Amino acid sequence: MIIRRSAAGFRQRGLALLIMLSLLVLATATLLVERFTAARIQSRRDEISDAALAQAKEALIAYALTYGDNHPNKVPGYLLCPETGNSAIAMPEGSADPSCGTKNASAIGRLPWRTLGLEPLKDGAHECLWYAVSGSYKNNPGTDMMNWDTDGQLTVRGADGRSTIAGATAGEHAAAVIFAPGPPTGRQDRRPAADTAVCGGNYNPANYLEAAGGADNSSVAVGAGALSTLIAGGSGNGVNDRLIVITPDDIFAAVRKRADFQAALAGLTRHLAQCIATYGTRNAAGPEDRRLPWAAPVALADYTTGSRFEDEAGNLSGRLPFSLKRSKRATDNAMSSTALDGSCPEPWSAADDEWYGNWKDQFFYALAGGFSPLSATAGACPPCLNADGSGSYAAIVMFSGSRLAGQNRSSSADKAQIANYLEDRNNANHPNAGGDADYRSGPADARFNDLLYCIDTGLKVAPCP
Fold first, then answer.
1. Bridge partners (DSSP) listed for residue 396
2. Within 13 Å, how many C-alpha atoms sit on residue 341's CB side?
3. How far apart are CA 207 and CA 355, in angstroms?
4. Nearest 5°: CA angle at 416, between 322 and 175?
5. What is the 3-state secondary structure (H, E, C) of 22-80?
6. Count of beta carbons in the 10 Å neighbourhood of residue 189
7. Residues in Cβ contact with 75 at an 8 Å cutoff, skipping those fewer than 6 apart
8. Which of 36, 133, 332, 340 has its CA 20 to 30 A from that of 67?
9. How confident is the model at residue 4 (pLDDT cuts 50, 70, 90)?
């Protein structure tokens, strides 16, 4: 039997197909618009987070830059403690803890926006920022030696878990990391605690920051000097924290631009040279006996303790000595103690003590053979030192300057190499066996930045020519 289909039936089926196709196109378009809109919303949230992170980084660097201005007789470089919501500390929300943990142990908490003089900084999810600070950079309790060679204690991985944002090698760890925590993930509980009217939520880092692949943004190692590993969010790693890193170079690049910082280091170098020179006026044999102290070794067991910078009999070059007991015994010197500050012509101030204590590993010293504690001439040329082929000098005090290309000062092995501090003839002349070496002075450039003060045979001190 032949079934005949009417034209009307074909038209109805065609119309149904057209409607279904239209609905499919509309659904696809709606999905694309939703995805596009969601991506734009997320992009805008990320922009807000990144802007807040950048502002926080700028404020923290400014805090480190001006730390000495706001804390008398202190050196720049220190960062403040986070805010941890410690109920025993009666401080308004947004205030840094007065102290955090033990010496050289890192700390984590909320960014202390109030102490930094900021409005509460919030990310694209309307959450206040969080902050981890290396134990070597926090201000209380402070580390034993803060200068441009002080390494951070935070390693930061990229979102892939393999690349490294900070800490790929020793000397490149972060001083601090700031986090934009984003919205809650998993079982994070952000119910409010007491005294969080501005930021809301609570002070448990695990309720805001995530972990992945052995890196944990919510926890830092509590041991002195211990390294912590953090990770950037993204790439499906289950971490939605956005972060920004502050390196030691970020801090000291700003510090080095201060004219008074350079003047302070030059002034300290001059004062140390004057202390050495004045030693030569107090020997028991009288004013004609101008013998000066021996140098300390370049390699030390501990670079953070001043008493370890001890003169060594026979050393005509090395680190600037602070403990002069061997030299004092050899020359029967009348200085008030066996420490270098006991022979200074001017009072050794609290500022001197602070600056020397933090920068002592940067100073070096060369002694003329004719001015050695065992010299038969009791302080006369020859042999004497030269600077750029001229003059006759009893001694030279050198400030090493910041690291140049190829110089590393991270490990004990690095610190034991004088070439990681001094350039050109200033390291090549070590150990100055004849006590008559010629040292380099002059303006700094990309390959030389040593600062030299010369002590002449009359024990006058001046910048080397």
1. 366, 454
2. 16
3. 41
4. 90
5. HHHHHHHHHHHHHHHHHHHHHHHHHHHHHHHHHHHHHHHHHHHHCHHHHCCCCCCCCEC
6. 11
7. 67, 68, 146, 147, 354, 355, 358, 359
8. 340
9. low
How many Å apart are CA 74 and CA 351, to the nearest integer? 7
Mean pLDDT of 100-118: 97
Question: Given the structure tokens 């499919």, which residue do they identify?
Answer: 24
Q: What is the Cα–Cα distance from 121 to 60, expressed in whole angstroms? A: 13
Beta carbons within 8 Å of 153's beta carbon, 6+ residues apart: 104, 106, 134, 135, 136, 173, 221, 225, 226, 227, 228
Give the torsion sign (CA, 352, 355, 360, 363): negative
Q: Between β-strands 451-456 and 107-110, what pairing exists: parallel, antiparallel or unpaired?
A: unpaired
**Quick check: 49 pLDDT over 50?**
yes
pLDDT of 359 over the 70 cut: yes
Please check whether residue 415 is in contact with residue 352, taking contact to mean a CB–CB distance below 8 angstroms: no
Strand partners, 174: 154
* Per-domain residue ranges of the chain: 45-254, 258-463
pLDDT tens across 306-348, in order? 999 999 999 999 999 999 999 999 999 999 999 999 999 999 9
pLDDT of residue 1: 46
Q: Alpha helix locations (H) across 286-378?
A: 325-331, 350-359
193 or 264, higher pLDDT: 264
As a whole number of angstroms, the distance between CA 132 and CA 79 comes to 10
Q: Is the dihedral of CA 208, 214, 215, 218 positive or negative?
A: positive
Bridging pattern class, strands 154-157 and 228-231 = parallel
Averaged pLDDT for residues 188-202: 93
| 73-87, 307-321, 429-443: least confidently modelled range | 73-87
Percent pLDDT > 90 in the chain is: 86
Instruction: Report d(CA 48, CA 223) in Å as an integer.
Output: 35
Q: Classify burial at 51, counting beta carbons within 10 Å of its beta carbon; exposed 0-12, middle 13-18, buried 19 or more.
A: middle
pLDDT confidence tier of residue 165, bands split at 50, 70 and 90: very high
Q: What is the mean pLDDT of residues 79-83?
A: 98
